[in-house]
Amino acid sequence: MERTQVIIPPQALERQRDFTARIAAHNAQAGKTPLALVETFGCQQNVADSQRIMGMLRDMGCAFTEDPRRADLIVINTCAIRENAEKRVYGTLGQLTHTKAENPEQIICLCGCMAQQPSVADKVRQSYRHVDLVFGPQALWKFPELLYGVYTQRRRIFSIDDEPGTIAEGLPVVRESSIKAWVSIMYGCNNFCSYCIVPYVRGRERSREAKDILAEVRELVEAGYKDITLLGQNVNSYGKDLPEPMDFADLLAAIDEIPGDYYIRFMTSHPKDATEKLFDTMARCKHVARQLHLPVQSGNSRVLRAMNRGYTREKYLEKLRCARSVMPDLVLTSDIIIGFPGETEAEAMDTVSLVEEVRYDALFTFIYSPRPGTPAAKLPDPATREEKQVWFDKLLEAQNRISAEIHQSYVGKTLRVLVDGESGDARWPLQSRTEGGRLVHLTGDKSAIGSFVQAKILDSNTWALFGEIEP
């Protein structure tokens, strides 16, 4: 991809700031502070996108609410990965017919991956006529101009052209936390896994310049952030399109040089591109957490080939052995899909056996959901939903047992944790995370929030640890 077509030029960004200023002036003249609601579905990249949308809205003079009935403007940022997420979005849009009826001046926007799909845009155009603005991920940086058009032209606007993916630096951001932060290092995907819609809605891979990433991380560390997660559809592909060679391991090493007391995490890593150099760099860096999310998706090589994943079961296990050889304390998580089209019971049980062999700390598990427009959606799928549920239950049973056993092994140990909030549980009022990302509920005073502390682990269950802060 030609880099000159990827980077949004300064004059184009200045044009958007001009539209932001016009909307801010309009809001100020109206004599009241408009309230905006931003609701996010899907992955951490969507969360990061929503934070930038909130940054633009803040600069337009908006304050924020979680009550759709009070909101003057609502933005629904959507996900297209799972069918269930789409159903929830349509349910939310249906509910907003009532808020729009109560407040006809309310502006409703639909954005994100789901909005980029032409079939979704057509459905919204015909069946959800109260939605005023629809735009995809590639048009996010133009949100001020699009919104200004809705205000001034009093018409519905759809911006879902199949345009090349872009990078827009310097967008404003509102971060909900002062402890944790997301930093996007790249956008898009080139892998075309046969079940996944992401390359079609987020475009091809494009990497941010290292200097911009380093400046953002440095600013966050200096502001006191303690837990920073680097984001990309496949962070292991970082840098392949940059004019100056730098791979993801090099980027981690450069970030690690930033002084401060903080953790760097990242997701998601594609197994086919996870290298020995990456594992060695993780082991050497003092700020990079010993945590790896490495989605396997299936434990059967034929299914992996049908998924277009680019590795076999054996190759995946070989990479894990390499990673654990240099990081014996590595916390390992993964994604798994059960019931891919054509998968047999025996092949699904290969995935269960892989889980037994690897002993993941935790899993994100899904029953296959067909995504229109992907190759997998056209494949024959003879297994019934009931059969797939039986396979899925066996997978959950194995992983829940393993997670419980691993967590039990921590009881009696003292761990360094970052206290990042309140839990809402009177007995264990604080919530924290270990370096490996394990959830630890703690006793103690909320004055500890935002600090690293030593925690004595007293109890555990399948999903979390429980402990007390040591003096």
- Give the number of helices: 14
Helix % is: 25-40%
Assess the beta-strand content as a share of residues: 15-25%
Instruction: Quote the CATH topology of the largest domain.
Output: Rossmann fold
In the CATH classification, which architecture of the largest domain applies?
3-Layer(aba) Sandwich
Please summarize the sheet with the most strands: 6 strands, parallel
Spans of at least 5 consecutive residues with low confidence: none
- Strand order across the biggest sheet? 2-1-3-4-5-6
Count the strands? 19
* Overall form: globular
In round numbers, the mean pLDDT is: 95
Radius of gyration: 23 Å
According to CATH, what is the class of the largest domain?
Alpha Beta
Quick one: CATH superfamily of the largest domain?
Methylthiotransferase, N-terminal domain
Distance between the termini: 55 Å
Structural class: alpha/beta
In total, how many domains does the architecture comprise?
A: 4
